[in-house]
Amino acid sequence: MKEKRFGIDIDGTVTCPTSLIPFINEDFSLNITLDDIKKYDLSEALDIPAERFSDWFNKKEPAIYSSSPLAEGAKEVLLKWKKQFQLFFISARRSHLMDITEQWFEKQDILYDRIELIGSHDKIKAAKQYGVDIFFEDKHDNAVSIHEELRIPVLLFNTPYNQDPVPEGVIRVNNWTQAEQWVDQWVHTEKTLPLNRS
Fold it and tell me: Which H, E and C letters describe the chain, residue by residue?
């Protein structure tokens, strides 16, 4: 049986979903918490004009990504998985942010097979290109579309901004410990099933 390939989003999945909040609070004179963000589109969630928010985000991206804290438990689980699986980090970040992204992974001591910054939220092409067997995501519509297009399980990390209903193949997890437990069971089940994938 081939070594499984994991497709993993970075922001809000490997990094803590609160990463942007201190920057938003400081620069927009707000006092919000993650619970206040009910939509993925932050300009809409915070009622900030889209162009203003986009300009701000483009300027702040390097600082945000350099200082993003890891999601709790992510490092321990990813280090275990790297011994057993191939890890492909597929992110909507734009390609000019590759140096900052690689430096962050090095600083956090997280190993990987590939980092792909696609500059778009449409991750289906990259997931298909690398033949990933499972995906990890925090954006609701990404999780649903990846599952429906590729017919693979997608683990959706629960946040206040991704609470729309999900189909059966999208599995909600609250943290990396739950993700690891689900994956352990999935891998065990796959090993005991007749080989149905090349």
Answer: CCCCEEEECCCCCCECCCCCHHHHHHHHCCCCCHHHCCCCCHHHHCCCCHHHHHHHHHHHHHHHHHHCCECCCHHHHHHHHHCCCEEEEEECCCHHHHHHHHHHHHHHCCCCCEEEECCCCCCHHHHHHCCCCEEEECCHHHHHHHHHHHCCCEEEECCCCCCCCCCCCEEEECCHHHHHHHHHHHHHHHHHCCCCCC
84-125 residue pLDDT tens: 999 999 999 999 999 999 999 999 999 999 999 999 888 999
34-66 pLDDT per residue, tens: 999 999 999 999 999 999 999 999 999 999 999
pTM score > 0.85 for this model?
Answer: yes
Contact 46, 56 (CB under 8 A): no
Domains in the chain, CATH or no CATH each: 5-16+69-192 (3.40.50.1000), 21-67 (no CATH)
Taking CA atoms, 59 is separated from 13, 47, 56, 66, in Å, by 22, 19, 5, 13
